[in-house]
């Protein structure tokens, strides 16, 4: 039986995490031959993240250079994908989310008339420049993709309003929940010495910041809010894994490097990071993936953005939009702590079976028997 060649185009750490469950599920099927093209959009710790899931890329494009523009990055990825796909033509290209790598993967598949599947389809803020460039990346991928794997019914409704045929949209849940449960099940202790020693009794707050639209003043406001929180609450310890981008790191270090009970950490391996989330009382983040992971763990999130493409976390009571405003962030964190939110897992983004639903759809798409059952929150 000839194997169906499935190319996964990815470039960032979150894409590795979210696509790994699907790659692993396809590896178990004799009908498919999955392989990975890593653009290198996130070079730092990529090997570590692949190793967590026992994966490695067939192609590593290594496109990143310092201070390159989106114009240059996009052209580099497209040119390299053309070279790869002309010499190693897949039967299907799979992209995830809204990165420049995902957009280029979808566009390359269109240029070569290869079907494209979009995982995490249909997320929208309906604000062109927020997040930038991710909002328009995913809108454009939605026009290029042939199969749309929406994580929630809300995402499905967004796609229907944009004219995507109903029979090409599949509500699967988000694959990050699959990855989260799998990793937490295998890793029960911290490897990072600071986490092993300092995550103790008391209040643990985890903070992340990386969004392009928050660079500069926005990141500084987040850092100043952290400073205020440890002054207000002597029982608070803040753990801040730093994005490697110097435009983020330098601002945070300037404001927080010497503040007691604030631990600035290099980017963490995924097992340590999700273990830290699971031990947190509140999370402060501008990350979409962190919103999903925190909801699955029942941890409240203060979202340092003015909009979110994941309104389900607000509706279930585990999220609040604070923007990048110092006072709003502090007030939101304190409100969550004073309310004493009881940890309750909210399965609004998935139940850990998204990858298997995607595999069943792909079986049907290529003419094999498959049984797809839509994800419903529980």
Automatic annotation (TrEMBL):
Occurrences of domain UDP-N-acetylglucosamine 2-epimerase (ranges): 25-362
GO molecular function: UDP-N-acetylglucosamine 2-epimerase activity
Keywords recorded for this protein, A-Z: Isomerase
E.C. number: 5.1.3.14
Superkingdom as given in the UniProt entry: Bacteria
InterPro entries: UDP_GlcNAc_Epimerase_2_dom, WecB-like
Pfam assignment, any one: Epimerase_2
Family: Belongs to the UDP-N-acetylglucosamine 2-epimerase family.
The protein's name in its UniProt record: UDP-N-acetylglucosamine 2-epimerase (non-hydrolyzing)
Organism: Candidatus Caldatribacterium saccharofermentans
């Amino acid at each position: 039986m000839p194997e169906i060649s499935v190319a996964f185009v990815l470039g960032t750490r979150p894409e590795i995490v979210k696509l790994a469950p699907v790659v692993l599920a396809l590896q178990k099927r004799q009908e498919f031959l999955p392989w990975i093209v890593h653009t290198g959009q996130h070079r730092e710790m990529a090997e570590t993240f692949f190793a967590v899931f026992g994966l490695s890329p067939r192609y590593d494009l290594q496109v990143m250079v310092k201070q390159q523009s989106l114009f240059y990055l996009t052209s580099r990825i497209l040119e390299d994908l053309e070279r790869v796909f002309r010499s190693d033509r897949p039967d299907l290209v799979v992209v995830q989310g809204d990165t420049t790598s995902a957009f280029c993967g979808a566009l390359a598949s269109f240029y070569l008339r290869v079907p494209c599947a979009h995982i995490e389809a249909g997320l929208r803020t309906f604000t062109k420049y927020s997040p930038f460039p991710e909002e328009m990346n995913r809108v454009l991928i939605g026009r290029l993709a042939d199969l749309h794997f929406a994580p929630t019914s809300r995402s499905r409704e967004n796609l229907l309003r944009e004219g995507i045929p109903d029979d090409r949209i599949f509500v699967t849940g988000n694959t990050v929940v699959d990855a989260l449960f799998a990793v937490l099940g295998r890793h029960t202790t911290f490897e990072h010495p600071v986490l092993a020693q300092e995550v103790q009794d008391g209040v643990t707050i985890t903070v992340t910041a990386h969004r392009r639209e928050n660079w500069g003043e926005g990141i500084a406001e987040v850092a100043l809010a952290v400073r205020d929180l440890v002054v207000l609450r002597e029982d608070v310890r803040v753990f801040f894994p730093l994005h490697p981008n110097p435009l983020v790191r330098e601002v945070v270090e300037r404001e927080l490097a010497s503040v007691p009970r604030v631990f600035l950490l290099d980017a963490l391996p995924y097992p340590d990071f999700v273990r830290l989330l699971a031990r947190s009382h509140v999370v402060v983040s501008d990350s979409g993936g962190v919103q999903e992971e925190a909801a699955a763990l029942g941890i409240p999130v203060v979202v340092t953005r003015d909009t979110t493409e994941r309104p389900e976390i607000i509706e279930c009571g585990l999220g609040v939009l604070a923007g990048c405003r110092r006072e709003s962030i502090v007030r939101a964190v304190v409100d969550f702590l004073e309310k004493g939110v009881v940890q309750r897992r909210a399965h609004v983004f998935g139940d850990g079976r998204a990858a298997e639903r995607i595999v069943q759809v792909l079986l049907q798409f290529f003419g094999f028997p498959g049984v797809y059952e839509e994800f419903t929150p529980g």
